[in-house]
Each structure stands twice: as C-alpha cells, then as structure tokens.
Amino acid sequence: PNAIQSITWNRNGSLFATTCKDKCIRVIEARSGRIIAVKY
C-alpha cells in the first residue's frame, strides 16, 4: 500500500480503516494486522 493519508477506528478498537494515495480503503484487523477488506 501507499502512504496512509487517514485512519479511523471502530468503537471497540478491533478494526481500523485507512485511506491511501492509491485511493483504496482498507479495513484492517487491529490485533493481527490482517487486511480484511479493500474497496477500490
């Protein structure tokens, strides 16, 4: 992924979403660091 431009967490801190210069949104599992969804 490209450099992260923004990040937001869900209420319980288990997931966060990032946006990057490549214009993708990635949802990441906080504990494992695993990307669980990508929106192009």
What does this protein structure show overall?
InterPro entries: Apc4-like_WD40_dom, Coronin, WD40/YVTN_repeat-like_dom_sf, WD40_repeat_dom_sf. This is Anaphase-promoting complex subunit 4-like WD40 domain-containing protein. One of its GO terms (molecular function) is actin filament binding. By secondary structure, this protein is mainly β. It is globular and about 25 Å long. The chain has strands spanning about 5-10, 15-20, 25-30, 35-40. It has one domain (about 5-40). It starts with a strand and ends with a strand. About 0% of the residues lie in helices and about 55% in strands.
Query: How many alpha or pi helices?
Result: 0
Order of helices and strands: EEEE
Q: Report the mean per-residue pLDDT as an integer.
A: 95
Count of domains: 1
Give the structural class.
Answer: mainly beta
Helix content: under 10%
Alpha carbon gyration radius: 10 Å
Identify the overall geometry: globular
Strand content: over 45%
Low-pLDDT residue spans = none
Q: How many strands, which pairing sense, and closed or not: the largest β-sheet?
A: 4 strands, antiparallel
Give the beta-strand count. Answer: 4
N-C termini distance: 12 Å
Side by side, the strands of the main sheet go: 1-2-3-4
Pfam family, one: ANAPC4_WD40
GO molecular function: actin filament binding
Organism: Rotaria magnacalcarata
Protein name: Anaphase-promoting complex subunit 4-like WD40 domain-containing protein
Keywords:
55% strand, 0% helix, 40 residues
Short description:
With 40 residues, the chain is mainly β. The protein has no helices and 4 strands.
